[in-house]
Automatic annotation (TrEMBL):
<dbReference type="InterPro" id="IPR001463">
    <property type="entry name" value="Na/Ala_symport"/>
</dbReference>
<feature type="transmembrane region" description="Helical">
    <location>
        <begin position="317"/>
        <end position="339"/>
    </location>
</feature>
<feature type="transmembrane region" description="Helical">
    <location>
        <begin position="408"/>
        <end position="426"/>
    </location>
</feature>
<keyword id="KW-0812">Transmembrane</keyword>
<keyword id="KW-1003">Cell membrane</keyword>
<feature type="transmembrane region" description="Helical">
    <location>
        <begin position="78"/>
        <end position="99"/>
    </location>
</feature>
<feature type="transmembrane region" description="Helical">
    <location>
        <begin position="163"/>
        <end position="181"/>
    </location>
</feature>
<dbReference type="GO" id="GO:0005886">
    <property type="term" value="C:plasma membrane"/>
</dbReference>
<keyword id="KW-0472">Membrane</keyword>
<feature type="transmembrane region" description="Helical">
    <location>
        <begin position="105"/>
        <end position="130"/>
    </location>
</feature>
<keyword id="KW-1133">Transmembrane helix</keyword>
<feature type="transmembrane region" description="Helical">
    <location>
        <begin position="20"/>
        <end position="42"/>
    </location>
</feature>
<feature type="transmembrane region" description="Helical">
    <location>
        <begin position="235"/>
        <end position="260"/>
    </location>
</feature>
<feature type="transmembrane region" description="Helical">
    <location>
        <begin position="438"/>
        <end position="458"/>
    </location>
</feature>
<protein>
    <submittedName>
        <fullName>Sodium:alanine symporter family protein</fullName>
    </submittedName>
</protein>
<feature type="transmembrane region" description="Helical">
    <location>
        <begin position="201"/>
        <end position="223"/>
    </location>
</feature>
<feature type="transmembrane region" description="Helical">
    <location>
        <begin position="376"/>
        <end position="396"/>
    </location>
</feature>
Length: 487
């Protein structure tokens, strides 16, 4: 039975994350970039001021809503989305990409991020535009809503939109248990045991208890925790990574040279990974880039849609920053930590130390911090993975509520917390593979919807540009009027 499941999952995984799925991911990002006039590049300074810059200059960005208002602030929506996005993929995923695709894979992660920025932007624009309030006054939004209410309104697409919405929501629930829960908790438990000798069961019980107090409090409590944890974990990890890179500053030029050589197959084939050609670097760069920033999966839009903004493009710009911070900042620093440490052959991509995954990053940190290096990574993974669990708990809750109604959310959360203990102590090789597949099954219907509604995204973006950049007196295209809640 297990062999059959593995074989079926491998076949499905080969489609959703094979050439077809990656081509769709690349193509959607490219098309959206063209249709919006490469907004992410042309207006880079503007959206940086409106996001990370506004955190320090505009109090409305961080201001909390009242207790009766179930919306969250723009900053809270970003932190909650980043909590789910920045995870073990930023450490283990980068190491895997380099070891499997060579240093050149990092370049293709950048390419995927630059295009994925517009995919994330578009998801958030559509999320705000097609959201509505439920009976309790809380915003409901996400890929399932713009699939059903956006794509579904196009001629001949009514049933298609509904079917894709259900497929997306069901895959999201399953992915939340795997990639968003058990796999993350298992990574935490394994690293804490290796670094500090903490039993896996104890880790699972403690994290489940802590999580219950947060998750059962709903989105506003998760957002309140995320806005404190995410900046802390980012500063902690980025600070340590910068120290490692600065100590090895003389090796930085060689690291960048290896990235560009490997990306275009210019490195000599020394019998290692790069000798296999550009295709492997492209595949692993795209694949791990997509896993890292989750642009195209449509998951984070469920949290972004609860923001207290009314301008779709305003929330779309937070999607740009989310991908920028995740891949172009965090993943790039991780890559430089690995490539400047001397532990990876810059020509072949082989690990000189004979280690893989998070152990390789820990080894790289130990070249500067000594025996504290692996412990530093264990704490980083604890923060990264635990925040991912909190974020995905909200994705799953919203997906279950869409499928079965709001009352099902509480039961889902109870199961979600209980599974954390199981995840800490079980072997999860198959769970990781299944999670990859469910992520891909979320991605495909979401990208069909985003591509199909690209014209709507372009119109909303042009309208915003006409008003804000050119001062034209045109009526704004804001969030659609609230509609009665679905079951």
């Amino acid at each position: 039975m297990l062999e059959t499941i593995t074989a079926v999952n491998g076949a499905v995984n080969g489609v959703v994350w094979g050439p077809l799925g990656l081509a769709l991911l690349f193509g959607a990002g490219a098309m959206l970039s063209v249709r919006t006039g490469f907004f992410q590049l042309v207006h880079f300074r503007y959206w940086m001021r409106q996001t990370i810059g506004a955190i320090f200059t505009d109090r409305s960005v961080t201001a909390h809503t009242g207790t009766d208002d179930q919306a969250i602030s723009q900053f809270q929506s970003l932190c909650t989305a980043l909590a789910a996005t920045i995870g073990t993929g930023n450490i283990v995923g980068v190491a895997t990409a380099i070891l499997s695709g060579g240093p050149g894979a990092v370049f293709w992660m950048w390419v995927m991020a630059l295009l994925g920025m517009m995919t994330s932007f578009s998801e958030n624009v559509l999320g705000i535009f097609y959201r509505h309030k439920n009976e309790e006054g809380a915003w409901q939004g996400g890929a399932m809503y713009y699939l059903a209410d956006g794509l579904g309104r196009k001629k001949g697409c009514k049933q298609l939109g509904r079917v894709l919405a259900v497929l997306f929501a069901a895959s999201c629930v399953l992915a939340s248990f795997g990639m968003g829960n058990m796999s993350q908790i298992n990574s935490i438990a394994g690293n804490l045991r290796a670094a500090f000798g903490v039993p896996e069961l104890a880790t699972g019980v403690v994290l489940a208890g802590c999580s219950a107090a947060v998750i059962f409090g709903g989105l506003k409590r998760v957002a309140a925790v995320a806005e404190r944890v995410v900046p802390l974990m980012a500063l902690f990890y980025l600070g340590g990574a910068l120290v490692v890179v600065l100590v090895h500053a003389s090796a930085v030029p060689a690291a960048f040279a290896a990235i560009f050589r490997g990306a275009f197959g210019l490195a000599p084939a020394g019998g290692g990974v790069l000798g296999c050609g550009v295709a492997r670097a492209v595949t692993w760069g795209f694949k791990r880039g997509a896993f890292s920033n989750e642009a195209g999966l449509g998951a984070s839009v469920m949290v972004h849609s609860s923001s207290n903004v009314t301008e779709p493009v305003q929330q779309g710009m937070w999607g740009l920053f989310e991908v920028f911070a995740d891949t172009l900042v965090v993943c790039t620093l991780t890559a430089l930590v690995i490539l400047t440490s001397g532990l990876v052959d810059l020509e072949t991509g082989r690990a000189a130390a004979g280690v893989v995954g998070s152990a390789l990053v820990g080894k790289a940190f130990s070249t500067v911090f000594g025996s504290f290096g692996p412990k530093f990574i264990a704490v980083s993974i604890l923060l990264f993975a635990y925040s991912t669990v909190l974020g995905w708990s909200q994705y799953g809750t919203k997906a279950v509520s869409y499928l079965l109604g709001p009352r099902a959310g509480g039961a889902y959360q109870a199961v979600f917390v209980g599974i954390m203990v199981v995840g800490a102590v079980m072997k999860l090789d198959l769970a990781w593979d299944l999670s990859d597949t469910f992520n891909g099954l979320m991605m495909l219907p979401n990208l069909v919807g985003v591509a199909g509604l690209s014209g709507t995204v372009a119109r909303i973006t042009r309208n915003y540009a006409a008003r804000v950049f050119y001062g034209r007196d045109v009526a704004p295209l804001t969030a659609s009027a609230p509609r009665p809640a679905r079951r």
